[in-house]
């Protein structure tokens, strides 16, 4: 199904303006004064809360009562936690965790051990 080029251009312009607006609004409202304390609290606590939600979301479909009993997930979480506490490098933690998990799942390491 082909779309009208004008229609696509309008959609792109609206999305671009909305994106720019969400980035510009804080600078417009808080240019000459400090933001309210609640925004500072949100700014400090939002990233860990988002990461916690992502971890919970990733673990929701794990089959805890069948082989491999969620061991690849728990092993990867422990490795990423240890690595992050040691190096304090988010990108290193993300890439290492993703690579380790994919390696464990694709090679079926724990299914071989438990199965």
Short description:
The chain is mainly alpha-helical and 115 residues long. It is 77% helix and 0% strand. The chain crosses the membrane at residues 6-30, 50-71, 91-114.
Please name the defining characteristics of this protein.
single chain; mainly alpha; 77% helix; Branched-chain amino acid transport protein; Brnchd-chn_aa_trnsp_AzlD; membrane; transmembrane helix; transmembrane
Task: Pick out the low-confidence regions.
Answer: none
> What best-fitting shape do the alpha-carbon axes yield?
extended
- Number of helical segments with 4 or more residues: 5
- H/E order of the elements? HHHHH
The percentage of residues in β strands lies in under 5%
Biggest beta-sheet profile: none
Q: Helical proportion?
A: over 70%
Oligomer state equals: single chain
Query: Gap between N and C termini, in Å?
Result: 48 Å
Number of strands: 0
Mean residue pLDDT: 89
**Helix/strand/pairing class, anyone?**
mainly alpha
Characterise the protein shown here:
This is Branched-chain amino acid transport protein. Keywords: Membrane, Transmembrane, Transmembrane helix. InterPro entries: Brnchd-chn_aa_trnsp_AzlD. Pfam families: AzlD. The protein has 115 residues and is an all-alpha fold. It has one domain (34-114). The protein is built from five helices and no strands. The protein has helices at residues 5-29, 37-59, 71-87, 90-107, 109-114. The protein is extended. The termini are far apart. The model has no long low-confidence stretch (mean pLDDT 89).
Q: How are the SSEs ordered, and which strands pair?
A:
Blueprint: H1 5-29, H2 37-59, H3 71-87, H4 90-107, H5 109-114
Helix pairs in contact: 3-4
Transmembrane segments: 6-30, 50-71, 91-114
Protein name: Branched-chain amino acid transport protein
Keywords: Membrane, Transmembrane, Transmembrane helix
